[in-house]
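Quick start: read one record
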Amino acid sequence: MKTESEVKKNVTKDIHIKILEDSLNDVRTENRFIKITVIILFIMLAFAIAGMIAQNIYHQHKLFRFMENTEFRSEVNMFNDDSSANNMNVERK
């Protein structure tokens, strides 16, 4: 027959084992939650980057289409005064 101290040792060992198993299960659950959260955040980051790139391409396309449909005209008139070779007037319209 077991003595009282041996029974206490076995009971405390079993309790410690159960506590450690419970703690391990809790840590596994928390790690799984953290992994899922990180994956979701990376997916959201990828969508945000893809959205920024798509907006940039769209607005660049709009800008080039605007520039193709708009006429730019510039006139430069240069007048050289014959009395002084270094004197020149530039007029832009």
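Strands lie at 76-80, 88-92.
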